[in-house]
Design brief:
With 139 residues, the protein is mainly β. It contains no helices and 8 strands. The chain has a single domain, classed as SO1590-like (AOC barrel-like, Beta Barrel), CATH 2.40.350.10. It is 0% helix and 73% strand. The protein has an 8-stranded antiparallel beta barrel. It starts with a strand and ends with a strand. 23% of the residues are buried.
């Protein structure tokens, strides 16, 4: 199978969030966040036009910094891909970085295998973020 490279950019918006204080040290929180996204820069692939993107993320932060992990569901006209990701957010830069890996495909993407890196930057408005990701995949 031939490996192909992807490099895309999405605008993400928070649709739901719940935060709990841990109370073991100042500023320690656990947050569950749901986000939806739309492409800013996207080259259509074999699955066709973009339909929707949703992610669910678990954050374990102390004073804004800490690990994160979650799931992504990206839907296209002829298939969908599900991925997991893990990373870290830096409270000083407000930038999150990490890695992603596919675990399931549907339709034309049924046999997809892929992995790569990502960066999430603050957007222009509250509750908005810009996701830049790249990596390789094979079908």
């Amino acid at each position: 199978m031939e490996r192909k490279r992807r490099k895309d950019k999405y605008l993400l918006r928070i649709t739901k969030t719940a935060t709990l204080q841990v109370h073991d040290k100042p500023g320690h929180t656990l947050t569950l966040t749901e986000m939806e996204g739309e492409p800013i820069e996207l080259t259509p692939g074999v699955a066709g036009e973009f339909v929707s993107r949703r992610s669910v993320t678990f954050h374990d932060r102390t004073k804004g910094s800490g690990p994160m992990q979650g799931y992504i569901m990206a839907n296209f006209k002829h298939g969908a891909v599900h991925s997991t990701f893990e990373g870290h957010r830096d409270s000083t830069t407000k930038i999150s970085t990490g890695t992603w890996k596919t675990y399931n495909g549907i339709g034309i993407l049924a046999n997809i295998k892929g992995e790569g890196t990502f960066k999430v930057l603050p957007g222009e408005r509250r509750g908005e973020y810009v996701l830049e990701f790249e990596g390789e995949y094979e079908l």
